[in-house]
Design brief:
Helix content of chain A: 25-40%
Oligomer: homodimer
Shape of chain A: globular
Largest sheet of chain A: 7 strands, parallel
Order of helices and strands of chain A: EHEEHEHHEHEEHEEEHEEHEHHH
CATH superfamily of the domain at 7-188 and 222-252 and 289-305 in chain A: NAD(P)-binding Rossmann-like Domain
Distance between the termini of chain A: 34 Å
Number of strands of chain A: 13
CATH topology of the domain at 7-188 and 222-252 and 289-305 in chain A: Rossmann fold
Strand order of the largest sheet of chain A: 3-2-1-4-5-6-11
Number of helices of chain A: 11
Chain lengths: ~350, ~350
């Protein structure tokens, strides 16, 4: 896995995972170009790449903007394709927006890649959301695809583009289906991005966590450095026998355990429990955790960071940099996508699916 | 299966299968409303519904046009959702157009249905193209989803919308994954709609058929009346235990056998054989035929029409009505989507996947 002097292109490189990947690739000596238009609600933050600001090139354009990408693509970089919107909630409130960001823009991008850098390696950030409510646990790659939100549908369509264009010989792409990722550089001011960001924001602003129901649903959170490692291995792999790889955390943990550990590390009281609100019950998918056997055996990747350690590092990062991620006077920020001119389309409440 | 006085809405009702369905529903006493904007290349033909012209209402609007559909939807019809583009070739030449027609428009339509006619029964015309090149034969519903063209990706995204919105309680939808359908009212002047339409057009204009390779690849063509019957059963079923049902023909036949039977029925010489052209070899999916066990056992549908009989009836229909479907002075019509102002975007040759 030698990235010294390698050209790499990271779409969504100002976002959470993309920026951590960019920093790691700079450490490894790669020549990093970031493509990111900082779409509202998608988690981009210029401060994320503060440590490598002088060493990376930034193209501030949509991945759909072919003209802006041609020059970078002609240099035949390894492509890490993380651009997108990950919010369940945004996708349900604004499905057409989600289709445009997660499917249409990817269509344009991949056709541009196929044209100017044919047969390029592309590692796409997929999601475990495509599996929906699990039929069995742990969930492997053969689990039926039955997304429970527009985000899952649209990201799966983009994953199909990657596969199809690779089968046609136009790309050399694979898809990582990521479980819940956490760590430094998560957006905290976008209130619709999943329970780990919400937990983190509350803990960092001194708020006691609240668990709906008994909190026994399992998740397998993965520390961002482990997810980054999966991208690096996938980008450098000479062969990959499969199209899609699940990327899960090191162990299943209950939501109650995750919240309790987080609260302890933050020096806050244990979480309180309250009845499951109806609007949450409707979207609850029960337990989920990943069978990552395929990527372990075929590509040799393993997650190394236990939740306790990863979350401690995460809290430490934000303690030093909180003002770059959150306005402390507004510890519960409203959804950025609410359209105040058109209350009909407003995202009425913050419903975060675990 | 009683459709007497039932209100039904057929999207794409001026097209091939939709118009046959409309005529059958009129015979059964239903009150039929057709939604069809006659999009270029999608096979709509006003003559298709000639036999029932006085008995059906027609809304000449896109399914994405919420305002035009509200009144019809408020009457809570059973919805047969056949609007779309089915051409492999068009989708590869104009993928964004295919996304707009097959995914974006369906998104708008289903949100409109969920709003004005919540919990409506919707029977969606899916396609066997979502399976791509078969891993095994016959292909059942558990076969991996790996479309080999944009059309398959986009139609699968629309199928996921149907499933997801049904799981959320907003629709009561199911998907029929149709194999190659043939019969009266297929478009003959759109040269990119599959091998059966091409065979038919050539036979009707006195051209000897040409088979690439040995013609041993299997298909299971289904006569349109049998496909219509599947829609009728699905629309009326009290319960349907599954989300998706394969709808295949009565028997697998080789392309050579299909062409030979067709030529005999048309009174033309047997097909000639020639080497597989490269551009066809690349997109050939080998043999495909359907395992329709699920719809047989769960919904009681069976295909009844043997190819010989169905094709004979098809030829008879066109012998009486050929000028409504083809300009006899142009027996090999060009692709209607070719943009003569922009030769870059032209569909250069007629590559029809079997």
């Amino acid at each position: 896995m030698n990235y010294q002097d390698k050209k790499v292109l990271i779409t969504g490189g100002l976002g959470f995972i993309g920026s951590n990947l960019a920093i790691r690739l700079c450490e490894l000596g790669a020549q990093v170009t970031i493509v990111d238009p900082s779409v509202n609600g998608c988690g981009a933050n210029d401060f994320n790449i503060h440590p490598v600001l002088g060493s990376v090139s930034i193209i501030r354009a949509s991945i759909a903007d072919s003209d802006s990408l041609q020059e970078a693509l002609r240099q035949r970089p390894i492509i890490f394709n993380l651009a997108g919107e990950i919010s369940h909630h945004h996708s349900m409130a604004f499905p057409e927006r989600d289709l445009e960001i997660n499917t249409l823009a990817q269509l344009h991008f991949l056709l541009t890649v196929a044209r100017f850098a044919p047969q390029s390696r592309v590692v796409y950030a997929g999601t475990r959301q495509v599996y929906g409510t699990p039929d069995y646990l742990p969930v492997d790659e053969n689990h039926p695809i039955k997304p429970v939100d527009f985000n899952g549908v649209h990201k799966y369509a983009a994953a199909m583009y990657h596969r199809m264009l690779s089968d046609m010989g136009k790309l050399d792409a694979l898809v990582l289906r990521l479980t819940n990722v956490y760590g430094p550089r998560m957006a905290l001011d976008v209130p619709c991005q999943g329970f780990l960001a919400t937990f983190l924001r509350k803990l960092l602003t001194g708020q006691q966590l609240e668990i709906f129901g008994d909190g026994k649903q399992l998740r397998d959170p993965i520390y961002v450095d482990d997810a980054v490692e999966a991208f690096l291995i996938a980008g450098a792999a000479e062969k990959f026998p499969s199209h899609s790889y699940n990327v899960g955390g090191p162990e299943p943990l209950s939501l109650a355990a995750i919240a309790t550990t987080g609260s302890q590390l933050a020096g806050l009281p244990s979480p309180s429990f309250r009845e499951f609100p109806d609007e949450h019950k409707r979207i609850d998918i029960g337990s989920y955790y990943t069978d990552s056997t395929r990527i372990r055996t075929e590509l040799g990747w393993v997650p190394r960071t236990r939740f306790q350690d990863g979350f401690e590092r995460t809290l430490a990062y934000y303690h030093s940099n909180l003002r770059r991620y959150l306005d402390p006077s507004q510890p519960n920020p409203p959804c950025k996508l609410v359209n105040h001119d058109n209350p009909q389309s407003e995202a009425k409440s913050e419903i975060v699916r675990a």
